[in-house]
């Protein structure tokens, strides 16, 4: 990333205690564009841009706020020099933590070993990609000078931040329950970056779900009513919904779907942190299996708390025009006519569906990402947004294929009381009846519109998410 520095600025700016001040001055003068002896945020941004370093606004602000000792919003030469010295000490600790055999160079096997202790499993080929991005002399090892030069202006503070992009997901919501939450560092939690990222994801999810709500309602209608004639297709389904309630009816139940994003996300992330603490030994990093278990339990906890909203959403989506006058009216009528237990109909198949969905989604995602890095990555260890989104779409699709029969039974159980002449059945009874009358394909009714909404949902969610991150000043990973 900063290979341009070698042979030009870096030899004169190498941060060593014995280095004469003129070495720091060479680099400082490059940044002090108006020559007034101080560097403000504008000069830092322009100066680094002119030197070919693109950190993003948050990275440059972090350098400024960390080095600005007197808090005047600028860096004088002494502050600039002290920042580089302090930053070098942190990078020295990170270098030593990777140099397991203390021979003064970092090798691919040491990167593999170090990332395993952080709960990340990568191949030797992926470790070599990391080395290639830093190595300047072609030895396929990284010595201290190469490491220091590479991270000179990168405001990371430790090895965990250096490899953070391995641990973060894209934050994209496609309208289905995300089982494995993202992870945040202690610094992100203290700075408020965590809630900004969650808020950006929540807003993106709300816009995405609203945009694809007609397909979501069609899925529910096909799951519940498709078995009556066995002939309901996408065109007939849309026509029936519009004929019965007009264009607005295509968004029936979407309000509940959007409202449950915030509490579900909050509970999921809070409980995920608690489960991680219970499952991991103090001082050790969470592994992928513990992450899966913690995420599954967090998803189950969140679903338990917000599940009544799931039932209300289904009832509103299936209900006829005028049957309910909103979320509260629906809840009041369910409570009056069916009791509290009705709010948890279908809860068991919903809970059972979390495990196969989470396991397959996470496993396929990691497998696809590793395959891309092993076979298609050239000079970067960061797969990039497009690759990560592609991996997420495929992994989510595989997870849904495995858990969809349980999701269908859950929806049928939630809506049974609304279908006249339908016997109230439990999960096992419904499975038997569906298979006996409709065969295995009956377990996948409505899956076509479910898959149809994935691509537009991802596209809309990503665009909104990226724009909201800029608005909320979320640090780029």
TrEMBL record:
Function, as annotated: Electroneutral antiporter that mediates the transport of adenyl nucleotides through the inner mitochondrial membrane. Originally identified as an ATP-magnesium/inorganic phosphate antiporter, it also acts as a broad specificity adenyl nucleotide antiporter. By regulating the mitochondrial matrix adenyl nucleotide pool could adapt to changing cellular energetic demands and indirectly regulate adenyl nucleotide-dependent metabolic pathways. In vitro, a low activity is also observed with guanyl and pyrimidine nucleotides.
Top-level taxon of the source organism: Eukaryota
Gene behind this protein: SLC25A24
Limits of the EF-hand domain: 19-54, 86-121, 122-157
Chief localisation class: mitochondrion
Family, similarity comment: Belongs to the mitochondrial carrier (TC 2.A.29) family.
Example GO molecular function: ADP:phosphate antiporter activity
Catalytic activity: 3'-AMP(in) + ADP(out) + H(+)(out) = 3'-AMP(out) + ADP(in) + H(+)(in); 3'-AMP(out) + phosphate(in) = 3'-AMP(in) + phosphate(out); dAMP(in) + ADP(out) + H(+)(out) = dAMP(out) + ADP(in) + H(+)(in); AMP(out) + phosphate(in) = AMP(in) + phosphate(out)
PANTHER family named in the record: SOLUTE CARRIER FAMILY 25 (PTHR24089)
Membrane topology qualifier: Multi-pass membrane protein
SMART domains in the record: EFh (SM00054)
Solcar repeats: 192-278, 286-371, 383-471
PROSITE patterns cross-referenced by the UniProt entry: EF_HAND_1, EF_HAND_2, SOLCAR
Subcellular location: Mitochondrion inner membrane
GO cellular component: mitochondrial inner membrane
Protein name, entry field: Mitochondrial adenyl nucleotide antiporter SLC25A24
Gene3D superfamilies membership: EF-hand (1.10.238.10), Mitochondrial carrier domain (1.50.40.10)
């Amino acid at each position: 990333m900063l290979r341009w520095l070698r042979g030009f600025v870096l030899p004169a700016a190498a941060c060593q205690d014995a280095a004469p001040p003129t070495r720091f001055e060479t680099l400082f003068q490059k940044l002090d564009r108006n020559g007034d002896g101080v560097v403000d945020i504008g000069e830092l941004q322009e100066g680094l841009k002119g030197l070919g370093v693109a950190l993003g606004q948050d990275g440059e602000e972090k350098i400024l706020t960390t080095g600005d000792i007197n808090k005047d919003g600028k860096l004088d030469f002494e502050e600039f020099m002290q920042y580089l010295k302090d930053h070098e000490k942190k990078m020295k600790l990170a270098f030593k933590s990777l140099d397991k055999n203390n021979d003064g160079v970092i090798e691919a096997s040491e990167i593999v070993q170090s990332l395993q202790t952080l709960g990340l499993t990568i191949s030797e080929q992926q470790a070599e990609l990391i080395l290639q991005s830093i190595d300047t002399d072609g030895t396929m090892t990284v010595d201290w000078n190469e490491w220091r030069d590479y991270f000179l202006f990168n405001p990371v503070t430790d090895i965990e931040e250096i490899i953070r992009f391995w641990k973060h997901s894209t934050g994209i919501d496609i309208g289905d329950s995300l089982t494995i939450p993202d992870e945040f560092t202690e610094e992100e939690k203290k700075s408020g970056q965590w809630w900004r990222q969650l808020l950006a994801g929540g807003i993106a999810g709300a816009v995405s779900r609203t945009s694809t709500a007609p397909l979501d309602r069609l899925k529910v209608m096909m799951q519940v009513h498709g078995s009556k004639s066995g002939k309901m297709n996408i065109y007939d389904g849309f026509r029936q919904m519009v004929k019965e309630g007009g264009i607005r009816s295509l968004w029936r139940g979407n309000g509940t779907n959007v409202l449950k994003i915030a509490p579900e996300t909050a509970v999921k992330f809070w409980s995920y942190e608690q489960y991680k603490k219970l499952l991991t030994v103090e001082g050790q990093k969470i592994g992928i299996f513990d992450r899966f278990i913690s995420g599954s339990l967090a998803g189950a906890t969140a679903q338990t708390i917000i599940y009544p909203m799931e039932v209300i959403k289904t009832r509103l989506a299936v209900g006829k025009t005028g049957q309910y006058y909103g979320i509260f009216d629906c809840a009041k009528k369910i409570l009056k006519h069916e009791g509290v237990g009705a709010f948890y109909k279908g809860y068991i198949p919903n809970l059972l569906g979390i495990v196969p969905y989470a396991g397959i989604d996470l496993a396929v995602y990691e497998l696809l990402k590793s395959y891309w890095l092993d076979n298609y990555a050239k000079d970067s260890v960061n797969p990039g947004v497009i690759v990560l989104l592609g991996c997420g779409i495929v992994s989510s699709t595989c997870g849904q294929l495995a858990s969809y029969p349980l999701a269908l039974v859950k929806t049928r159980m939630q809506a049974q009381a609304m279908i006249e002449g339908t016997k109230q059945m439990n999960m096992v009874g419904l499975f038997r009846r569906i298979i006996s009358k409709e065969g295995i394909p009956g377990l996948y009714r409505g899956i076509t519109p479910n898959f149809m909404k994935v691509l537009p949902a991802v596209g809309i969610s990503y665009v909104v998410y990226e724009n909201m991150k800029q608005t909320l000043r979320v640090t780029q990973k």
